[in-house]
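Hi support team,

I submitted a single chain yesterday and got back a structure, but I'm not sure I'm reading the token output correctly. Could someone confirm the output below corresponds to the sequence I sent? I've pasted both exactly as they appear in my results page.

Thanks,
R.
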Amino acid sequence: MLFCDSNGVLFLAIRKSEIKEKWRIWLKFIPNVWKFEVIFKQTPNEMNTEELREYFLARISELKKTNSREEWIQSVKNAKSHFEIIHGTEKKY
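Hi R., thanks for writing in. Yes, this is the structure output for that exact sequence:
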């Protein structure tokens, strides 16, 4: 599985490593306390902004129609960078 960072660099998830920090072991019964760390390997490939935008729009379009989905689509269409596509644009009030 490939992952794209906020600079367009692609990474490959190569394995999971069990986390050995004691506090995580003590709290393992609590949901969402990470039990594994994903190990990534950088690939020589990059994804440009338009490729990432098209990928996001294709995946978002598969979701059920809601107001949130439409806002998300607009946010992705208006994004100017990888970071904004992935994280969204900050609303200024």
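A quick pointer for reading it: The mean pLDDT is 88. Let us know if anything else looks off.

Best,
Support desk
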